[in-house]
Design a protein that fits this description.
about 80% helix, elongated
Length: about 70
C-alpha cells in the first residue's frame, strides 16, 4: 500500500488496486486510514530531539550492540 501511495507502482497495477478498493470495503478503510496517517505525519514536521535524550539513546544502542 505504501508503494501505491508514494506513486511507485506502474499504471496497470495502480488501476488493479483502485478497482479492488472499489469492491473491498475493508481494504478501502485500511487505505484511507493509511492516507490520513501519512498526511498527519507530513503536517507534523520535524522536532528537535534534546541532546541529553540523543546521548542516552546512543548509549543504550551501544550496550545492545555488544555481545
Amino acid at each position: 500500500m505504501s508503494e501505491y501511495l508514494d506513486n511507485e507502482l506502474d499504471g496497470s497495477l495502480c488501476r488493479e488496486i483502485e478497482a479492488h478498493l472499489e469492491r473491498c470495503h475493508a481494504c478501502k478503510v485500511c487505505m484511507t486510514t493509511l492516507q490520513r496517517t501519512v498526511a498527519l505525519c507530513r503536517q507534523a514536521g520535524k522536532a528537535q530531539v534534546p541532546d541529553s535524550l540523543s546521548r542516552r539513546l546512543r548509549e543504550l544502542i551501544g550496550t545492545l550492540a555488544k555481545p
